[in-house]
Specification:
- This protein has an eight-stranded mixed β-sheet, with helices on both faces.
- β6, α4 (145-149) and β7 form a beta-alpha-beta unit.
- The two termini are 28 Å apart.
- The chain contains six helices and eight strands; from the N terminus they run βββαβαβαβαβαβα.
- The chain is globular.
- The chain has 216 residues and is an alpha/beta fold.
- It has helices spanning 50-58, 86-100, 116-121, 145-149, 168-174, 197-209; strands at residues 2-8, 14-20, 32-37, 64-69, 109-114, 131-135, 155-160, 181-186.
- It has a single domain, classed as Rossmann fold (3-Layer(aba) Sandwich).
Length: 216
């Protein structure tokens, strides 16, 4: 069931968000929880953007509770674009909102993002996060990404074979020194994954399922 939310960033900005719990009898207890971070606010990105929308729709049926939100200045969120600075506080607020639902008490918490949202996720080394899922990150907005990169927790990149924003070769080279990092290239996909969103959902589902047993 979809639950509309208002979450508040550390600097007092009210953010529009939605939460969907894991669905079905087999998933009465979530196997994982996921925060979804959307693409660049200045280029039409929102929590309803294609890849984020598909992940939010599909993952709960596979035991993953999801929270998506609009960065400051987008749609129903307050505030204004802050060039990736305040937006990192927005990500932390989304993690707080999942924590308030007990989502950080046992099942793995995955911080996922697409494009700009992936960079914001990779800028967030929150101790409550168990793994990062970065979908087509440009790596141009991330703040000190090596902090996450050198962390021993798992990181998985889903990249488009024909990405016109940041090539898979560039991403691999820029993160070659990272720990616990894996890559998956979606054949025929560009930065937007039109016609390939099913492949992204499958990649996300498989990565999350492989994270192992919930924490003690």
């Amino acid at each position: 069931m979809l639950e509309p939310l208002t979450i508040i960033s550390a600097d007092g900005v009210e953010l529009q968000a939605e939460y969907r719990s894991a669905q079905g009898e087999a998933h009465d207890v979530a196997q994982a929880a996921c925060v979804l971070c959307h693409p660049h606010p200045q280029y039409g990105g929102s929590m309803h953007s294609l890849v984020i929308g598909e992940l939010f729709r599909e993952l709960p049926a596979h035991g993953v509770s999801c929270l998506r939100f609009n960065f400051r200045g987008v749609e129903g969120s307050g505030g204004a674009w802050d060039e990736g600075r305040g937006e990192r506080a927005d990500v932390a607020a989304a993690i707080d909102a999942l924590a308030a639902r007990g989502a950080t008490d046992g099942p793995p918490l995955v911080l996922a993002g697409w494009s700009f949202g992936a960079d914001m996720a990779l800028s967030t080394a929150d101790p409550r996060v168990d793994a990062w899922l970065a979908i087509a990150p440009p790596l141009s907005f991330a703040a000190e990404p090596d902090v996450v990169g050198l962390d021993p927790r798992p990181k998985h990149f889903v990249l488009g074979e024909r990405d016109q924003v940041s090539t898979s070769e560039h991403v691999r080279a820029a993160t070659a020194h990272w720990n616990a990092t894996t890559f998956e290239v979606v054949g025929g996909a560009d930065h937007f994954f039109v016609g390939r969103t099913d492949r992204v959902v499958t990649a996300a589902r498989d990565f999350i399922a492989g994270l192992g047993e919930p924490r003690e």
